[in-house]
């Protein structure tokens, strides 16, 4: 391991890999039907798992699971009917973030996760203020020249086995975490990212709740 994982700020940060499966009803933003999170730390140069969470989420009545959703995820309306709602699930996940702790969320195409979290921010105020690292710009920076930067392409590039439950949140979180660690290993090997600040500059995405709201020009 190299300079990136030697950085005190990097070592003090908990990286939480997160993934949602969603259904997207006409006229509404995507509604989560499953979430998984995997917390990783590297306090002394070696990665350790700091916790994990997974839950199904019952979608609201206006966002029923469609046949296309079931074809992709395997989740059915019957399975989700007895699941807790988004307020319960996101509230429980929010409570796992220690006040004053240093966190970054990690996601493949983080815009999706960022939007879901922001739309549920009343239930997860702490989580909604955690910024992101996006594995797509990180991969573009560290492994240029791939045909695309979809998760399946990155799995093939790093010879990571496809999970049997691909497109389930818990499975996608595990392989996204593996991709993230391979990318950080590549960064260390090539000494391309010196510290956490450099990593954030390349792959960071500000949480929507942390973006200042611009007031009107003539507020009274």
Automatic annotation (TrEMBL):
| Classification via Pfam families | RNase_T (PF00929)
Return the SUPFAM superfamilies for the record.
Ribonuclease H-like (SSF53098)
Q: Which UniProt keywords apply?
A: Exonuclease, Hydrolase, Nuclease
Keyword Nucleus attributed: no
The superkingdom listed in its UniProt entry is Bacteria
Know the name of this protein? Exonuclease domain-containing protein
Please provide, alphabetically and separated by semicolons, the GO molecular function terms listed in this UniProt record. 3'-5' exonuclease activity; nucleic acid binding
**Organism, per UniProt?**
Streptomyces humidus
Key word rRNA-binding present: no
């Amino acid at each position: 391991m190299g300079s990136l994982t030697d950085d005190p700020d990097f070592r003090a940060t908990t990286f939480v890999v997160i993934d949602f499966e969603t259904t997207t009803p006409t006229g509404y933003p995507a509604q989560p039907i499953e979430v998984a999170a995997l917390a990783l730390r590297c306090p002394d140069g070696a990665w350790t798992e700091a916790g994990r969470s997974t839950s199904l989420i019952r979608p609201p009545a206006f966002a029923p699971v469609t046949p296309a959703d079931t074809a992709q995820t395997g989740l059915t309306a019957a399975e989700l009917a007895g699941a807790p709602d988004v307020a319960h699930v996101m509230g429980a996940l929010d409570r796992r973030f220690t006040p004053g702790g240093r966190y970054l969320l990690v996601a493949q195409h983080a815009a999706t996760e960022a939007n879901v979290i922001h739309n549920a921010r009343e239930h997860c105020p702490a989580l909604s203020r955690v910024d992101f690292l996006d594995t797509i710009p990180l991969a573009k920076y560290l492994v240029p020249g791939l045909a695309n930067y979809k998760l399946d392409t990155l799995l093939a590039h790093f010879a990571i086995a496809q999970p049997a439950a691909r497109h389930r949140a818990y499975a996608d979180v595990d392989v996204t975490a593996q991709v993230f660690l391979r990318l950080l290993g590549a960064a260390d090997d090539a000494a391309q990212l010196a510290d956490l600040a450099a990593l954030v500059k390349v792959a960071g995405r500000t949480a929507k709740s942390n973006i200042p709201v611009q007031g009107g020009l003539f507020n009274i």
